[in-house]
Amino acid sequence: MARLFVLVFIGLFFGFGLGSSFDQSFDITWGNGRAKILGDGNLLTLSMDKVSGSGFQSKNEYLYAKIDMQIKLVAGNSAGTVTAYYFSSLGANHDEIDFEFLGNLSGQPYTLHTNVFAQGKGGREQQFHLWFDPTQDFHTYSILWNPHSIIFTVDGTPIREFKNLQSRGVQYPTSQPMRIYASLWDAEEWATRGGLVKTDWSQAPFTASFRNFNALSCSNSCPANSWFSQSLDAAGAQRMKMVQQNYMIYNYCTDPQRFPQGAPVECSFS
């Protein structure tokens, strides 16, 4: 209970401003009417049935940005569904920064899956169970991507930092502009307990909702001491450590079956 109070307090203290209109910021790209912009452009819903899911992408590309999105995930029996929210460029050697929410049976926790790709190489998965029910209300999921770090936060609480360690031979996304994407799709072959639990189509349509998008970016140069030069301070690192100790359920850095010769270089600096 004490952990929950601290995390809620942090989320309130580091609150976010109002979001941008979805009409102005995004294009619906697939789903044949299953994605809808509502409420004067302030709410976007994605739905999925047995025929198709749906998705949208940003009108703009970003080379470094800080983005916030409030999301309310699929409620009830969401097994087999994946709600994704991420940066990505295009091509075989693409860069990508992922939030993916893997559904589960009613009453069981969602899995929050994060990953970072650079020059087409991913495999840097960290997964978490959240300290709240993400289907009951909107919560803010943020990605800060600058030349120094990629920081994932939930309601203002940092859960992961991926540092720029190019000087150590670790690839980092620095040169490919990326769009923001979101989608709701069927991944019953792997999403819930490795595919053991399938999608219950009698529960369809499944719906996830998005609101209050906000983006900070720089067209030419960013002011000093802005998000562009930000990394986790000691207090932020301590909050992240607390989340990882209590809510992380998978970390590629501690998977000896995948890395019998030792963890990747960046794991020594995380």
Name the features.
270 residues, mainly beta, eight-stranded antiparallel beta sheet, 11% helix, globular, disordered N terminus
Give, in spatial order, the strands making up the sheet with the most strands. Answer: 1-4-13-6-7-8-9-15
The stretches of 5 or more residues where confidence is low (pLDDT under 50) are 1-18
Molecular shape: globular
Q: What's the number of helices?
A: 3
Radius of gyration, in angstroms, nearest whole number: 18 Å
Number of strands: 15
What's the order of the H and E elements?
HHEEEEEEEEEEEEEEHE
Helix content: 10-25%
What is the overall pLDDT average? 90
Largest sheet features: 8 strands, antiparallel
Structural class: mainly beta
Strand content: 35-45%
User: What distance separates the N and C termini?
Assistant: 27 Å
